[in-house]
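Suppose a colleague, Dr. K., hands you the sequence of a protein chain of 114 amino acids and asks what its three-dimensional shape might be. Before reaching for any lab equipment, you can write down a predicted structure in token form. Begin with the sequence itself:
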Amino acid sequence: MSWARPTMPDYGMLASGLSSRHGITRNPWNTDRNPGGSSAGAAAGYGPLHVGSDIGGSVRLPAGWCGVDGFKPSFGRILVDPPYPGRTLGPLTRTVADAALLTSVIAAPTAETT
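The predicted structure, expressed as tokens, is then:
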């Protein structure tokens, strides 16, 4: 199953999942296509919990194209270091319940939780 290898683009900056070292990640539903987004490898479904970085759809596109759950939380909900306006970290998981659990673990503390 070399087509399902979870990889990401060089420097995490391409929207295709293309790696100069490992080639392109393939969409598990249609191997003629890629999963989309820089978090493409996470959407291939190898593991139950992944965290992706999203500015312009790098979590949301692979989630939608590969049938996994993923979303872009509000800016600051999950801390990013160094901070960059518009970039957030979001879960890519197999189920909505897993996304909620992962988010609750990695989310920044709020006034309600401190």
